[in-house]
Structures are given as C-alpha cells and as structure tokens.
Write a structure and sequence with these properties.
The protein is of the alpha/beta class. Helix content is 32%, strand content 34%. The chain contains six helices and 13 strands. The strands form three sheets. Strands 1, 4, 5, 6, 7, 8, 9, 10 and 11 form a nine-stranded mixed sheet that branches. The protein has a two-stranded antiparallel ribbon with strand order 2-3. Helix 1 packs antiparallel against helix 2 and helix 2 crosses helix 3. It starts with a strand and ends with a helix. 37% of the residues are buried. Bound molecules: 1-O-pyrophosphono-5-O-phosphono-alpha-D-ribofuranose (PRP), uracil and magnesium ion. The site of 1-O-pyrophosphono-5-O-phosphono-alpha-D-ribofuranose (PRP) has 22 residues, from strand 4, strand 6, strand 9, helix 4 and helix 6. One of its GO terms (cellular component) is cytoplasm. It comes from Agarivorans albus MKT 106.
C-alpha cells in the first residue's frame, strides 16, 4: 500500500488547528473542507493527461486534458460528508457514492447500514473519504464493498490515520493508495486516535 503523509505547510498548519479542544463546529467544518481540498490536490498530482486540439479564439489550439477514468467521491457516513465538498472543489464533476457505516462503540466493529453507489462504478476512480482511520475496520469494510462492485482504482483520503489502522488496511488491501494529513501516535483503549481530533462525526455535525 502506498501511504503519503502530506508535508505541505498549509496542511501541517490546518490539521494542527483542528486539534484545538474548544474548536467550534463552524471552524472544524471549514478546516475539514480545506484540508480535504489540499489532500485532493496532492492525490491527483499524477493523473494522466493527454493533448487535444480545440477551437481557440485564434483558430485550433493544443491543450491538455485529464485522460481516462472519471471519478466518484465516496464519503463514509457520517463524518466523510465533512470532506466531500473539499474534494469536489477540485473534482467538480465527480459523482457521489455514499456508504453508511458506523463503528460499534463496544466492539469497535464496523456496522454497515446503507449504501448508494453510482452506476458503472467499476469504470471510475473511487476517492474514498473519511476523516478518521482508527482500527481501520470501517475503511476495510468500505473497500471490500467497492471491490465487490468491481472497483479497481481506489484512492483513500483521511485527515488522520492511526498506525494500527494503516497496518490493518495494508494487510487487507495492499493495492491501495492512501493520502493523509497526519499519521498519529496510537489508539487509546476506546479506539480513539491520539492525539487525534476527538470524535470527528460529532464535531462536524455538532452532535453531543
Ligand atoms: O477505523 P475505525 O475504527 O473503523 O473508526 C473510524 C470510523 O469511526 C468514525 O465513524 P463513526 O462510527 O463515529 O460514525 P459517524 O461518522 O456516523 O460519527 C469515523 O468517521 C470512521 O468512519
Ligand atoms: O479518534 C477517532 C476514532 C474513531 N472515530 C473518530 O471520530 N475519532
Ligand atoms: Mg462518530
């Protein structure tokens, strides 16, 4: 699995701001969107381009276009919705495929409850977004689902990843590419990432 911890100063700065204990819902949402846009920019740096000729103001002109597959952004509900607009800022034509999974608070096992994927998803690049990769269970279940539907080209974007989750994801899906703003230290006994962001879903939705 290719893992990229993005070192861009804007990403380092903004993910640091997100760790503040008393951060407001508004600020957390804004930063989640901003960091997601920056991760998308980095993660798409190697998309293939091709030269085409179009009608320009002074006659035919050669321009470059992104070649090949169209994309679908795949937010894992709920918290992944907080990253979706950031991705769409740079990929405005991407279709959205939603996967609903929550983590059982006792067992930490992923519990799937909904999904609605775009048609012919197997022909698209899937950009899977979730702020937190903790044990990795929710992401593994999502990638399992996407692969069952024939997806071959999958890129994962997470704001914060725990080493435990990266290890589990690598073991289950070694072919993935993952971009993150931070690889943190570890999980605590409740499965929360340290230092982490706390409960990202609650912070994005203002619950609790
Ligand atoms: O790597 P894991 O151990 O599976 O944990 C990470 C998952 O937990 C959080 O979702 P949560 O279950 O809190 O759902 P929510 O987004 O609806 O709040 C988070 O957004 C991930 O989806
Ligand atoms: O640290 C964590 C772990 C799982 N889910 C979260 O929202 N935060
Ligand atoms: Mg949550």
């Amino acid at each position: 699995m290719k893992v990229v911890e993005v070192k861009h100063p804007l990403v380092r700065h903004k993910i640091g701001l997100m760790r503040e204990a008393d951060i407001s819902t508004k600020r957390f949402r804004e930063l989640a969107r901003e960091v997601s846009a920056l991760l998308t920019y980095e993660a798409t740096a190697n998309l293939e381009i091709e030269e085409v000729t179009i009608a320009g103001w002074n006659g035919p002109v050669k321009v470059e276009q992104i070649k090949g597959k169209k994309a679908t952004v795949v937010p894992i509900l709920r918290a992944g919705l907080g990253m979706m607009d950031g991705v769409l800022e740079h990929m405005p034509s991407a279709k959205t495929s939603v996967v609903g999974i929550y983590r059982d608070e006792e067992t930490l096992e992923p519990v799937p409850y909904f999904h609605k994927l775009v048609s012919q998803i197997d022909e698209r690049l899937a950009l899977v977004v979730d702020p937190m990769l903790a044990t990795g269970g929710s992401m593994i279940a999502t990638i399992d689902l996407l692969k069952e539907q024939g997806c071959k080209d999958i890129v994962v974007l997470v704001l914060v990843a725990a080493p435990e989750g990266l290890k589990a994801l690598e073991a289950a899906h070694p072919d993935l590419v993952l971009y993150t703003a931070s690889i943190d230290e570890k999980l605590n006994e409740q499965g929360y990432i340290l230092p982490g962001l706390g409960d990202a879903g609650d912070k994005i939705f203002g619950t609790k």
